[in-house]
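REVIEWER CHECKLIST
Item 1: Sequence provided? yes
Item 2: Single chain? yes
Item 3: Sequence as submitted:
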Amino acid sequence: MRHSDRTAREHWFSCSGTLERLVFTSVVRKTLTERDLKDGSLAQRLGVGGTDLGVLLMVFAPGHPRLSPADYTVVDVSEEQSWVRDLLLDACPPRGEASRLLAGILARRSMEGGHLWEDLGLPDRATLTALMNQFFPDLAARNVDNMRWKRFFFRQLCEAEGLAHCTSPTCSACPDVDKCFEPGSAEAMIARSKAAPA
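Item 4: Structure as written out by the authors:
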């Protein structure tokens, strides 16, 4: 990347608003902690690598621990992760640098087993909803039933394929299945069956 491009990107990040700073700072801190406790590169845990990751760290985690070159490399992403990323990218406003980066981050963190707001390191679900409304307003407007965001992403993907019942790939690891789905519903049964031993 040319110096002028990098300077422009750094300037954009440094001028970001309160919500952007909260979100990027929270998720960078969360993934740095995970990287120290678990296997995998930082880029792999965050969903953003290369120069984008370098700028995020410089702006939102100054003084972060020294990283190896491997920490900046994103390896292959799962099919489900790429579907969520594409859903979010399709909802990005033109030239939305923050939205583009957040699409990769949200998609990657949607592959974790907890609630999305927790896996982003955010203080509450309302902060995630504010993020969706600000950066992906058209997509957020479709969440008329106030579904949990991870469930909503996968519902959108399933409906686009003509499927009536589906769950996210991580529902089997979540203790709150009954909070997301009506007891006895097809989706609740699907989520529980994913958790059942083979």
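Item 5: Key structural point noted by reviewer: Confidence is low (pLDDT under 50) at residues 194-198.
Item 6: Recommendation: ____
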